[in-house]
Write a structure and sequence with these properties.
Layout: H1 3-82, H2 108-134, E1 192-194, H3 197-202, E2 209-211, H4 226-237, H5 243-252, H6 259-285, E3 289-301, E4 306-317, E5 323-327, H7 334-341, E6 346-349, E7 365-368, H8 371-380, H9 386-409, H10 413-438, H11 447-456, H12 459-463, H13 476-481, H14 483-492, H15 498-516, H16 521-535
Parallel strand pairs: 3-6, 6-7
Antiparallel strand pairs: 1-2, 3-4, 4-5
């Protein structure tokens, strides 16, 4: 083989080697590129994982914050619930009602007994509902008093004057009839007399003309009679008719009145009734046991040109039932409460409104709570937690059952006090133990939490009704007294101004006290309005 052929052979071998080397380089390049892509993918996944980690860390911090908040809320709840008593509870002796230390937890036996009582209560409620659903309504008598009777006699045709028939009896058929109210003019005719001419000459000093003096009226030189003034006040504050409806009613009776006239009459009457109102207030505040409550009364604010929420306060002599209403520019503040009962000495029964807490342990006052308000709080919590709310209602039901039995037995106040301290007070102590055992299960914002706070903090105040047989277990007496205020609010909606609200307080006070004394309001008011002109100076 020539040198040229050898050279060609060598070049071919080198070319093959270069080709193989090139293929290896391409393969290495592809491998490196794949590894680079894999590395980029790993970096991307790592970045995503870092994002997930950061998100989890943020969620962890958020959850930790929620846990801290819940712990803080529970700490606040425990402090609110138990702080005022500093882990102290009701005394064993109800006459002390100062805190003592002892552990309070329901035993298994007590819990089992309570569960059985809850079940019995639910079964009894179911029976009552079933009986009520199937009970036939008994027709009540229509006549509530002795109504006058007008008889119409009907004879068979042809029997009168006929000797062939003898009357043997009658059959009566009664129907209720009515004559619409009638407006009339009450005219006072005063006869005038003059002394005879001859007597005037004989006795010049003798009075020549005689006429009877005009009887005094509550509004001199006005056409309105005491009966009409009484009708206006009764229509508004007993039947809750606003003045414009009364104007329409009187128009149908033939008298055209306007709003300004009625308002003027109403204002003047309230001014004349004010001394009676002051006497009533003085009499109620001199008693040794009162009940206090407040209710909303919308009042027109002339500056804001709209009705704003105001409040009317009520104070009731819990022993006689007399009530007086108080309006202080619509305020519900503690300052108004201090004006109202700050100088009072005696027992004061209220609901759980926080302004009354400032009077706790005030010299001369014994603050008493209301179990009816407590029961309502737990009734509201039934939908949230039926088990625990029902258990609370069972305890309260025991207290009311004792009251019902004593009322039916007609016990004296001393006997009531003795039984309350023997039977009712231990139930309250057991109820307190139950609240201790369930308090940690609820947050302050839950319905059960609110009910427990509402009950536990003022528990000594709620327990004090056992100290006197005259005290009531609840404040329902004052709530019933202020019900006409709520009815009026639904009809005439608001008071025209603050002065109108004060006048409403005067009338509500007098009418509520009439009702408590079982006095017919119209008869009383007409008599008072007739006697005011000559008696006002002595009131």
């Amino acid at each position: 083989m020539s040198e040229q052929d050898l050279e060609i052979q060598r070049l071919r071998e080198e070319l093959a080697a270069l080709s193989t080397k090139n293929e290896n380089l391409l393969e290495e390049q592809a491998r490196l590129l794949a590894e680079k892509n894999q590395l980029l993918t790993l970096k991307s996944e790592l970045a995503q994982m870092a994002g997930v980690v950061n998100k989890l860390r943020a969620e962890k911090e958020e959850m930790q914050q929620v846990i801290n908040d819940l712990r803080s809320m529970m700490a606040w709840f425990r402090k609110k619930l138990f702080g005022s008593m500093s882990e102290k509870h009701l005394p064993l002796d109800p006459n002390v009602l100062e805190p003592t230390l002892f552990d309070q937890h329901l035993s298994e036996e007590e819990q089992a007994k309570l569960d059985a009582e809850v079940k019995a209560m639910e079964e009894q409620n179911a029976k009552l509902i079933e009986v009520k659903a199937h009970k036939r309504e008994v027709r009540k008598p229509i006549l509530s008093g002795n109504l006058p009777i007008e008889e119409t006699h009907i004879y068979p045709e042809g029997v009168q004057g006929n000797p062939d028939y003898v009357e043997i009896g009658v059959e009566n058929t009664d129907t209720l009839a009515i004559r619409p109210a009638k407006m009339y003019v009450k005219r006072i005719v005063r006869h005038k007399f003059v002394l005879r001419s001859q007597l005037q000459i004989e006795d010049p000093d003798r009075q020549t003309f005689l006429i009877a003096p005009l009887p005094e009226t509550i509004r001199p030189k006005s056409m309105v009679d005491a009966s009409l003034l009484a009708d206006i006040l009764i229509n508004k504050y007993i039947y809750h008719l606003p003045f414009y409806r009364q104007i329409q009613k009187y128009k149908e009776l033939g008298v055209l009145l306007n709003d300004a006239t009625i308002n003027d009459w109403f204002t003047s009457v309230c001014e004349r009734l004010r001394p009676l109102y002051d006497k009533l207030r003085e009499q109620i505040m001199s008693s040794d046991y009162i009940q206090v409550d407040e209710s909303t009364l919308p009042v027109i604010d002339n500056e804001k040109h709209r009705a704003v929420k105001g409040y009317m306060w009520a104070v009731r002599n819990a022993l006689t039932g007399d009530v007086y209403f108080h309006y202080d520019m619509g305020s519900r503040s503690g300052d108004t409460a201090r004006k109202l009962i700050g100088g009072y000495r005696g027992a004061v029964q209220t609901d759980g409104y926080e302004v009354y807490e400032s009077f706790e342990n005030t010299p001369g006052k014994r603050m008493i709570g209301c179990w009816a308000h407590v029961r309502r709080k737990f009734v509201e919590a039934l939908d949230e937690n039926k088990k625990y709310a029902s258990e609370a209602i069972v305890y309260i039901g025991k207290l009311y059952k004792i009251e019902e039995e004593m009322r039916d037995a007609g016990l004296t106040p001393d006997e009531i006090k003795e039984r309350r301290q023997k039977e009712s007070y231990p139930v309250i102590q057991e109820f307190e133990k139950w609240m201790d055992s369930v308090a940690n299960a609820f947050t302050p914002k839950s319905r059960m939490g609110k009910a427990l706070v509402y009950t536990y903090t003022p528990l000594p105040r709620l327990s004090r009704y056992v100290l006197d047989g005259r005290y009531n277990i609840d404040n329902n007496g004052i709530e019933n007294a202020i019900r006409p205020l709520a009815l009026g609010r639904k009809n005439f909606l608001f008071a025209g101004n603050h002065d109108a609200a004060v006048r409403a307080a005067i009338v509500y006070s007098l009418f509520s006290s009439c009702k408590a004394a079982k006095i017919e309001t119209r008869t009383w008011l007409e008599d008072v309005l007739k006697r005011i002109p000559s008696s006002a100076t002595t009131w």
